[in-house]
């Protein structure tokens, strides 16, 4: 582990010398200034808009449930997670270096001191956590409609990145690099070009992600070797939870349909 950490420090030093030409502390101060003066403002705007969509989606879902079940009281529908909306300055520098290494050390690097303010793909990160797959599908459609509408609050703040939106929820094991499952949007701020990532995940998908973060991601990020069997196990756990999500979603929709039929008969 020590040798891997030393190697990363050497690569970071090389990156700074070649492209930033300042000491590490000065580079971090520059990133910190960007976080405090630019990112924080966009983060506040984005959180307000996403909270508005959260409340609207919850209200629409509750209405949908009450149409089938008038005496319904409440169930978990959606929660906006903003707990990790911005990276630390060290993580931003680390990602710049890691992206450069993965791209085989090109000159200039994909994310450089000159462009990191607009090229950092997940400078801001948000996640909607939903109960059922059907909730996720409907919320995904709502977000897409909102961001494509220039009259909406979401559309005035962000536009879709060139990568648009993706869905890894239903991808089979043989077509996946890892076990993550989500609906994902890559967004660009309309005025200053800041990039944001928005995910929509079920509770089970988030549970998998939190365990993978501890068992695989953080160890790998810190230079630990990950046995192939561990990765295989985590992918299979993701598949098993996907099957559970599907089963619960089918049951959820069947219960709603049964409630609607019973209401009609009355």
Task: Describe the structure in your own words.
- By secondary structure, this protein is α+β, with helices and mostly antiparallel strands.
- It has one domain: Beta Polymerase, domain 2, CATH 3.30.460.10.
- Helix content is 60%, strand content 14%.
- It has eight helices and five strands, in the order ααβααβααβββαα.
- Helix 2 packs across helix 3 and helix 7 runs antiparallel to helix 8 (228-265).
- It is globular and about 75 Å long.
Concise summary:
The chain has helices at about 1-20, 25-70, 90-100, 115-120, 135-150, 155, 205-220, 230-265; strands at about 80, 125-130, 160-165, 185-190, 195-200. With about 270 residues, the protein is of the alpha+beta class. Helix 2 (about 25-70) packs across helix 3 and helix 7 runs antiparallel to helix 8 (about 230-265).
Rounded to an integer, what's the Rg over CA atoms?
Answer: 21 Å
Main sheet specs: 5 strands, mixed
Average predicted local confidence, pLDDT = 91
CATH topology (fold) name: Beta Polymerase, domain 2
The CATH C-level class name: Alpha Beta
- In helices, the fraction of residues equals 55-70%
Cα end-to-end separation: 68 Å
- Overall number of structural domains: 1
Q: Which stretches of 5+ consecutive residues score pLDDT under 50?
A: none
What is the CATH architecture assignment?
A: 2-Layer Sandwich
Major sheet strand order: 1-2-5-4-3
Oligomer category: single chain
């Amino acid at each position: 582990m020590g040798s891997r950490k030393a190697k990363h420090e050497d690569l970071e030093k090389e990156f700074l010398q070649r492209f930033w030409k300042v000491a590490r502390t000065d580079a971090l101060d520059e990133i910190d200034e960007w976080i405090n003066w630019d990112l924080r403002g966009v983060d506040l705007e984005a959180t307000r808009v996403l909270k508005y969509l959260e409340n609207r989606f919850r209200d629409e879902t509750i209405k949908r449930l009450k149409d089938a079940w008038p005496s319904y009281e409440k169930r978990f529908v959606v929660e906006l997670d903003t707990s990790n909306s911005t990276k630390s300055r060290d993580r931003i520098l680390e990602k710049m270096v890691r992206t450069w290494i993965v791209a085989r050390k090109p000159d200039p690097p994909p994310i450089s001191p000159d462009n990191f303010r607009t090229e950092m793909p997940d400078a801001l990160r948000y996640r909607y956590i939903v109960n059922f797959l059907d909730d996720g599908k409907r919320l995904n459609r709502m977000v897409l409609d909102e961001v494509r509408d220039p009259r909406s609050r979401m559309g005035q703040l962000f536009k879709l990145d060139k990568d648009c939106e993706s869905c890894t929820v239903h991808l089979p094991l043989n077509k996946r690099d890892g076990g993550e499952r989500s609906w994902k949007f890559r967004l660009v701020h309309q005025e200053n070009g800041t990039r944001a990532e928005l995910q929509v995940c079920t509770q089970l998908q988030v549970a998998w992600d939190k365990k993978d973060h501890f068992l695989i991601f953080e160890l790998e990020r810190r230079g630990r070797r990950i046995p192939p069997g561990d990765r295989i196990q985590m992918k299979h756990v993701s598949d098993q939870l996907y099957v559970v999500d599907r089963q619960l979603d089918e049951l959820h929709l069947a219960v709603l349909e049964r409630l609607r039929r019973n209401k009609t008969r009355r």
